[in-house]
Amino acid sequence: MGENIIEIKTLTKSYEDNVVLNNISMNIKRNEFITLLGPSGCGKTTTLKILGGFENPDSGEVIFEGSNINDIPPYKRPLNTVFQKYALFPHMNVYENIAFGLKIKKLPKDEIDSKVKEILKLVSLENFEERSIESLSGGQQQRIAIARALVNEPKVLLLDEPLGALDLKLRKEMQLELKKIQKKLGITFVFVTHDQEEALTMSDKIIVMNKGIIQQMGTPEDIYNEPANAFVARFIGESNIIDGIMLEDYKVNFCNKDFKCVDKGFEKNEEVQVVIRPEDIKITDSEKGMLKGTVNSVIFKGVHYEIEVIEDDRSWIIHNTQNAKPGDIIGMDIYPEDIHIMRKVSENE
User: What residues are paired with 294 via a beta bridge?
Assistant: First the structure.
């Protein structure tokens, strides 16, 4: 995708006795849409604030295009930030809000006019120049906040949960809109969210964080299909996680049965954890299935049914378009490519 525009090297940050970032490192490539994903308190927003210059790390470096920017204040960094609370000026109209940074730079009026009109067209709000901020919907205010940041032509745009205040339908629309804007402008976006679907929809690369530590970095497909540990597997979508024994390359035992898989490189008879996504379990006749269980509950989710099945005291979640009834005895088939093997570690490691 290109060379690194930002390198974060061994950042640490604590507030009193609370370690928020624990020696994290990452690279961000030019023109990349990267998402920092994790639960509240995982360190993702602190990372963004350090990038923007609003917080100082206890140790570590932020390298921008080869130069350390730790001591450079926010207004001198070639990055702009859009916060969840858009911080628009209520006493200014749309034009004045967007033009604010350009006026600070003392650009000529005709150049400011041209840039404001161009950026309003980009966010699909042409002819909104004279509107008051209070007359805008939440989605429109969010677009204006993004326009105000982008009009300054930053090399990197930092976005701190900017869709959090929007309703579900508008959030989904804005996910696609943001990705389209990023691709059109070809600049780097660093996006912070706790919403897994949002991250999977928009990102070129996802960095999953928990307790100030990076758990996994990779493409949305890698993160979803090949979770590095139980935390990632549970946080990104739903998972069935079962203890197993890796008998040899491409062969694992769980639920007291041997299964073919596509994983290798483990020790013989190594204790492992097996991850199987709910949508990867096929329902079949109870006498033909690799496993057999009793349907405990069924919830209609719109595009599929969520079926809980009890198999030998284990609870399985299945997502299937085929309905079932509580009390039904069903078979379950799992194909080798749908069995993912993880080394057995505690979630605190």
Answer: 310, 329
Judge if 77 and 195 occupy the same domain.
yes
Residue 212: name the closest of 51, 6, 38 by CA.
Answer: 38
**CA 153 – CA 42 distance, rounded (Å):** 30
Q: Which residues are 28's β-sheet partners?
A: 6
Distance CA 296, CA 255 (A): 18
Give the burial string for 314-337 (b: 16+ CB within 10 Å, else e): eebbbbbeeebeeebebbbebeee
Query: Which tens digit of pLDDT belongs to each residue from 171-214?
Result: 888 888 888 888 888 899 999 999 898 999 999 999 999 999 99
CA dist., res. 84 & res. 198, Å (int): 15
Condensed to tens digits (0 to 9), the pLDDT of residues 115-145 reads 999 889 888 888 888 899 889 887 888 888 8
* Torsion sign over Cα 295, 298, 304, 310: negative
Structure token pair of residue 196: 């897994």
**Which three-class secondary structure state does DSSP give residue 161?**
coil
Q: Would you give the DSSP letter of residue 240? A: E
pTM over 0.70: yes
What is the distance in angstroms between the CA of the first residue and the CA of the last residue of the chain?
A: 31
Closest CA to 48 of 80, 86, 89: 80
One domain for residues 152 and 268:
no
Sign of CA dihedral 66, 69, 74, 76: negative
**Could you give the 3-state DSSP secondary structure of residue 181?**
helix
CATH number of the domain to which 244 belongs: 2.40.50
Q: In terms of Cα–Cα distance, which of 6, 326, 316, 311 is closest to 155? A: 6
User: What tokens were used for 278?
Assistant: 């709910």
Longest dimension (CA), the chain: 78
Separation CA 79–CA 340 (nearest Å): 39
Residue 157, strand partner residues: 80, 189
Element of type H or E holding 18: strand 18-29
The residue segments making up the domain with residue 346 are: 239-281+334-349
DSSP 3-state of 310: strand
**Number of domains present in the structure of the chain:** 3
